[in-house]
Amino acid sequence: MNDHPAQPRAIRSYVLRAGRMTPAQQRALEAAWPRYGAVPDDLGDPVALFGRRAPLYLEIGIGNGDNLVAAAARERHANHLGCEVHRPGLGHALLQIERLALDNVRLLGADANDVLDALPAASLDGAAMYFPDPWPKKRHHKRRLLATPFLAALARCLKPSACFWFATDDADYARQAAELIDGAPGWRNLCGARAWAPRPHRRIVTRFEARARRAGHVVYELLAAPHAGECARGAGATRPGKT
User: Fold this and answer.
1) Among 114, 133, 172, 182, which one carries the catalytic annotation?
2) pTM of the full predicted structure?
3) Residues 6 or more apart in contact with residue 235 via CB below 8 angstroms
4) Consecutive 10-residue runs of the chain (243 residues): their mean pLDDT?
5) Whose CB among 63, 108, 162, 170 lies 3.0–4.6 Å from 158's, allowing a Cys bridge?
6) Domain span at residue 74?
């Protein structure tokens, strides 16, 4: 059991929808989840969870898992955690993981805040949140996941040299995220106050992002760290949509 206080929160950042589950996704959930699935209680010992000691990365809100699986296939020396509450996305990710015979990925069908509460302090070598639900209506902004309590919980989990990558195609969410990072205790935008980051090499263009770009949306990238560590090297500001 972790001895740190959990951050108070009353509002979920998501609404569970049934979605459309294909027969293949359902079979993958039934057959492959025992091997690749995890619950927050499993996170107290990442070495035991993966069966090895290796750099550990967390992607929050993996969607269909395309980026997570690509990262795990490219970076087989590292362990990768993917967090997603929607079951069809988890099923799709499991199909890809099995097809590529990846053993360095574990999936969590859990609230991201519960995942952060369960992880040991200074256990993550990096974390990412790409295209989270922007909750565009003003009355729903309180549901946005990136908030001050979230940043405090994430800071506890990141190693001194670790970074946090964030991307959104919602201009208001991007502005709010930049302001939150600039104002959060200990956090630093590695490209400068309210400046956008270059596109990270480790993020692929998913179908969601490609659709957003075809619709003319600008993609805003942020690169931040609570400890302003080694990941600051090479960070440089850029204009959104130019990455």
Assistant:
1) 133
2) 0.88
3) 190, 191, 197, 223
4) 44 57 96 97 98 98 97 98 96 98 98 97 98 80 90 97 96 96 95 92 90 94 82 49 43
5) 162
6) 18-120
